[in-house]
């Protein structure tokens, strides 16, 4: 079993891009599962009312299931709503239900509404240094954001120190990123000075097309070392895994998609925080 060094402190990643369909959820669940294969303990927080990460990780999330909604709106501790992922040892999930769609509006009247998730994560006994949080400590927390820059994503940007932006290697890839990056600047200036875009992940990379190579070159020119060397190839095995209630890491571990996610996770773990 390959392993990677465990970080000194829990690393909290915000997986965000306000564009839908770029591979946020797919990357969150597969990087999470890959990290557990490298001996890491991981918590995934599903922050999208669609609950796609909950579906992909095969945890119940029908309406009324204790979820991120309860954490954000009622201040319920994360420990009370998290579930074991049946597909990967060492992986736990805070599911999202459709109730979360209302949270954006319900939170408007709440005090310190953009800091609710940060507070919940900080209060979790398994978050922090190993000395403080014990052997069951989470090494990574990955937050899967909805495709918007509203109050849910804002809560994630306030809660995390590192941001992972999945970028689909296609023509419009860089469009809209300006808005995302100015939101990050705003959050850094006013709400979370620690926030850094540490990781850019190229997804759905089709190596046969010149377009994909061109987009990848543009992204690497623009973001430099923030871009992981490993790009995730477009592969039907990746997209069909959720319908079997599995990540591609267990559905087809020898497939190019699974191997790439494992390599991307290894890069993340070995290079540590760039902040
Ligand atoms: P987002 O969370 O950003 O909206 P998803 O992760 O849900 O994006 O991905 C959007 C669609 O693309 C899904 O149907 C997913 O299965 C598919 N997909 C994601 N990554 C790949 C890949 N590497 N190869 C093939 N299909 C993929
Ligand atoms: Mg998604």
TrEMBL record:
Concerning CDD domains, the annotation shows: ParAB_family, SIMIBI
- Pfam families with a match to the protein in the record: AAA_31
For this protein, the record's InterPro entries field holds: AAA_dom, DNA_Partitioning_ATPase, P-loop_NTPase
The chain positions of domain AAA read 11-196
Query: Mind telling me which PANTHER family this protein's record contains?
Result: P-LOOP CONTAINING NUCLEOSIDE TRIPHOSPHATE HYDROLASE, PARA FAMILY PROTEIN CT_582
Query: Per its record, how is this protein called by name?
Result: Chromosome partitioning ATPase ParA
Q: Which organism is it from?
A: Nocardioides panacisoli
Phylogenetic placement of the source organism:
Bacteria, Bacillati, Actinomycetota, Actinomycetes, Propionibacteriales
């Amino acid at each position: 079993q390959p392993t990677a060094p465990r970080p000194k402190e829990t690393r909290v990643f915000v997986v965000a891009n306000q564009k839908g369909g770029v591979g946020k959820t797919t990357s969150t669940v597969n990087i999470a599962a890959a990290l557990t294969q490298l001996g890491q303990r991981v918590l995934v927080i599903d922050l999208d009312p669609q609950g796609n990460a909950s579906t992909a990780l095969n945890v119940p999330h029908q309406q009324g299931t204790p979820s991120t909604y309860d954490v954000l709106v009622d201040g319920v501790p994360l420990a009370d709503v998290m579930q074991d992922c049946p597909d990967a040892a060492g992986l736990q999930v805070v599911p999202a239900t459709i109730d979360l769609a209302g949270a954006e509006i319900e939170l408007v009247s709440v005090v310190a509404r953009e800091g609710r998730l940060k507070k919940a994560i900080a209060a979790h006994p398994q978050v922090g240094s190993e000395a403080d949080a014990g052997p069951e400590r989470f090494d990574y927390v990955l937050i899967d954001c909805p495709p918007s820059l509203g109050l849910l994503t804002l809560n994630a940007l306030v809660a995390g120190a590192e941001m992972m932006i999945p970028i689909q290697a296609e023509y419009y890839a860089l469009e809209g990123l300006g808005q995302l990056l100015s939101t990050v600047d705003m959050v850094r200036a006013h709400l979370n000075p620690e926030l850094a875009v540490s990781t850019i992940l190229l997804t759905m990379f089709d190596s046969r097309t010149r377009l994909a190579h061109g987009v990848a070159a543009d992204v690497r020119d623009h973001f430099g070392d923030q871009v992981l060397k490993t790009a995730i190839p477009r592969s039907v095995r990746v997209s069909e895994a959720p319908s079997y209630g599995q990540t591609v890491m267990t559905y087809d571990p020898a497939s190019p998609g699974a191997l790439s996610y494992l390599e991307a996770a290894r890069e993340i773990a070995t290079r540590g925080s760039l902040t």
